[in-house]
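Narrative progress, year one. The postdoctoral researcher (J.K.) led the effort to move from monomer predictions toward full complexes, under supervision of the PI. The following entry was the first complex the group processed end to end, covering 730 residues in total.
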Amino acid sequence: MLSENVLLATKNVADLPVVVIEPSRGWMRVDLSELLTYRELVFFLGWRDVKVRYKQTVLGALWAILQPVVTMLVFSFFFGRLAKMPSDGVPYPVFSYTALVPWTLFSTGLTQASNSLVNGANLLRKVYFPRLVMPLASVLTSLVDFTLAFSVLVVMMLFYGFMPTARVLTIPALVLLAIATSLGAGLWLAAFNVRFRDVRYVVPFLVEIWLLVTPIAYPSSLLTEFWRPFYAINPMVGVVEGFRWALLATDTAPGPMILVSSSAAALLLVSGVFVFRRMERNLADVV
Amino acid sequence: MSSDAAIQIEGLGKLYRLGDTFEPRLTLREQISRMVLSPYHRLQAVLRGESAAIAGEDFWALRDFSLSVSYGEVIGVIGRNGAGKSTLLKLLSRITEPTEGRARIRGRVGSLLEVGTGFHSELTGRENVFLNGVILGMSHSEIAAKFDEIVAFAGVERFIDTQIKHYSSGMSLRLAFAVAAHLQPEILLIDEVLAVGDAAFQRKCLGKMSDVAHEGRAILFVSHNLEAVQRLCDRCIWVDGGRLKQEGDAASVVRAYLEHGEMLESSYHVDRQSGPDDPIVLRNAVVLNANGEPCDALCFGEPFSLRLTWDVATWMPGAAVDVHMLDASERVIFATSTRGSDLDVKAGTVETTCTVRENVLLPGDYSVSVSCMRPPRTWLHIVKRCLRVRVLNVAFPGKRLPQLTRDALVSPATEWQLRRNSISGPASLLEPAERLESHELQS
């Protein structure tokens, strides 16, 4: 039994994977296949976060719904009722809530991702895994809250008489765009957060500003056709108007706006990954 | 042969930067203010006739390290604290990158640098087993297959669906080790994980380790438990000052290591080597017995003090003196520090005395490490094992030698009370000499 085991181990030695550990120089490439082998870890870290997030809260997962719903009520009263903000001919509550749902997905993902390394410092110092796993898991975690908030959106749509059309099929792609934006910005911030804890204070501020420059309380049709593609350099513009286009049949989103937003998101994500990778090598010594 | 090696290390090195340039916890504001103020500080130092170059000191935690480990080998790694053992494991497990050299690893690596990494107190035992297993590199199905075995090994079957926060610390440690012990990678890197739990559980862990060791894997086992190293390992390496000092069969390396330890002095003294670069230097250190006399041996229970004399060139506000007491197997028995109290020190010669009124050290050999640092991690001066002191198997007047020391680390003064329902019988069953203090138990 014992010698058999030894034989078993030695027989296969030549087939075992080889890893070379040496100092890396310059920009590192991203090993996607390695990331794929760690998908279970992404899942479990995300699962842990979801599981723990609403422990010892009275309302539990209701918070995921409460946050965008209350914001929607406040917006509806002040912007919709008092300021008479135009809303592309859509009742204002459903107009703003349709935007708030993907926005909340983005903003919680961004916040969690930017703090993921610092919060998981203990793990980083003791175990190896591709560090991308941590921000990735935190961004994906916000999908759970998104699903809850989205179900409320469905109810609201039916209430206001919006029947789903074939455009609904673009929602997954738009969600992906929101996640890419969230992860891209989150990677930048997570990387800097390790060295400069100032990021902790920057993030809430950044999210606030970003909310204002995204057409959530107002429609982007306030801008002339010419300016809209420039406006869409903020990828969340494409996401939000895309959601309205897909669910509420408004017509500002398609075409150039989505294209610009997708390109901007891709750029943000790719640059974020590389900045993150560059900082990753000494992460455990610094965090 | 060598291409089949599980681990092939060639000239591996890791450089850390000490001093002011490496303070990652600084916020941007502090960095900026330091940048702005540093010319001023430097000028001040130059005017006082000192060099300001305490910053940016390099420190090789590991250097020129080469080693080959084959499958079926269990290699013990021994050395003092800070010798580079943990750095070696961190590099091999890819937690941090080397500065130079390379290592080729053939096979899946499981590293166990800490027990219970990633345990979350809000989750149940069952959930934590899966989470921890995945973190350590097992797949979900592997864990599921071994789940019952893991739980049985830890002996927490009844509480497996209870949140970890309701566990005793011993229980969660046992569960954590059980998960780790069931890792199935070809290469295992283990850092001092046996230093957990009670003696019985430690023996169980050692047993499990030696089972694992004979399954044909390659294992690197860092430990201060020299006895365990000799028992488990065929080969042993001794790391000192970041370099491989000696390599060979476990028994002879352990012996050499222990003999080296005996060369320590009972007092420490350096003549001023006029190191103007150092803001603070330990000039002299000595152990004083209960009568205040320098000594190298104490009675059991004898109060003692450590007198440390420093040459202070520039005092860094916030700096603190730390003292670590280590036993013969390099375990830290206790540590004490001036942290938390603001020392007001002027340049010149300064004497600090640390008095240990309750000496709980068991008879045996101890060493003292002294350092001066500015928290969190600016090391100003470190002298490892600068003093040696022996605690004799003779009780200090008024103390009693401990009767039961097996597996114990320290022996604090204890009192026993015997209380019984006084229906009948004499007042005490104990001899008058052994008569226990008559404090009442609370309940």
